[in-house]
TrEMBL record:
Signal peptide: none annotated. Residues 8-40 form the Protocatechuate 3,4-dioxygenase beta subunit N-terminal domain. This is Protocatechuate 3,4-dioxygenase beta chain. The lineage of its organism: Bacteria, Pseudomonadati, Pseudomonadota, Alphaproteobacteria, Rhodobacterales. Residues 45-227 form the Intradiol ring-cleavage dioxygenases domain. PANTHER family: DIOXYGENASE, PUTATIVE (AFU_ORTHOLOGUE AFUA_2G02910)-RELATED, INTRADIOL RING-CLEAVAGE DIOXYGENASES DOMAIN-CONTAINING PROTEIN. Belongs to the intradiol ring-cleavage dioxygenase family. It is an enzyme of class 1 (oxidoreductase). GO terms for molecular function: protocatechuate 3,4-dioxygenase activity. It comes from Roseobacter fucihabitans. It comes from the Bacteria. Residues 1-24 are annotated as: Disordered. Its EC number is 1.13.11.3. It holds the Pfam family PCDO_beta_N. InterPro entries: Intradiol_dOase_C (IPR000627), Intradiol_dOase_core (IPR015889), Intradiol_RC_Dioxygenase (IPR050770), PCDO_beta_N (IPR024756), Protocat_dOase_b (IPR012785).
């Protein structure tokens, strides 16, 4: 790696840990300066997790849990590339997603939202990026749902995305939103991010060229792992 490969991160690109409008951040945010810890050799060198456990249909959420038919909802294709800070592809990276169903409910015992569970939708999928860093999922567009922040807050439709690298400590998690959703501008979690351009990089663009006619609308979402314009990751505020 040459010096020109290293791009300093923009610390203003990511949200502060303490964002009062996002109520749970008040109790969870640190009160003292954080310590930088050096990773151990075992954390940096392995093992990888899950890369050898991919089945052919794992990236098809329309089928990978279906019991009696296709899930209910707007069928979509989610695709994009995993890239580094210099727009180079990151191949063979484990990309996992999880989401609510079309009614806005997760398949989780602690989700008590009144929307019904869809018996044909599990809400989880996984795939490996190819040699050019490309990934693709088929799924349904998740619904918005209420959450106990203020009296009437609703989360925008979103999909959680996990990217797992080549070593045990190299896991990053983010959320992806959908172009044109009016709830994005109303969400206290989203608006904890100070730079509108950073919010824009969490929004998947409508991609009619990749849509399947009479089948599914496509959205494109590229994931940038490092650099001063990296995708915002929930578990590492400064990127990776």
């Amino acid at each position: 790696m040459s010096p020109s490969d290293l791009i300093q991160r923009d610390r203003q690109w990511h949200p502060p840990a303490h964002a009062p409008d996002y109520k749970t951040s008040v109790a969870r945010s640190p009160h003292n300066a954080l310590l930088s810890l050096q990773n151990t050799d075992s954390e940096l060198t392995g093992p990888t997790f899950g890369h050898d456990d991919i089945d052919a249909g794992d990236n098809d959420l329309l089928r990978n849990y279906a019991q009696t038919g296709d899930p209910i909802g707007e069928r979509i294709i989610l695709h994009g590339r995993v890239l580094d800070e210099n727009a180079r592809p990151v191949p063979h990276t484990l990309v996992e997603i999880w989401q609510a169903n079309a009614g806005g409910r997760y398949r989780h015992k602690k989700d008590t939202y009144l929307a019904p569970i869809d018996p044909n939708f599990g809400g989880c999928g996984r795939t490996l990026s190819d040699d050019q860093g490309r990934y693709m999922f088929r799924t349904v567009k998740p619904g918005a749902y209420p959450w106990r922040n203020w009296v009437n807050n609703w989360r925008p439709a979103h999909i959680h995305i996990s990217v797992f690298g080549t070593a045990f400590a190299q896991r990053l998690i983010t959320q992806m939103y959908f172009e044109g959703d009016p709830l994005i501008a109303k969400c206290p979690i989203v608006n904890a991010i100070p730079d509108p351009r950073a919010i824009g990089q969490l929004v998947a663009a409508l991609d009619l060229n990749a849509s399947a006619p009479l089948d599914a609308i496509a959205y494109k979402f590229d994931i940038v792992l490092r650099g001063h314009r990296s995708t915002h990751f929930e578990n590492r505020p400064e990127g990776n």
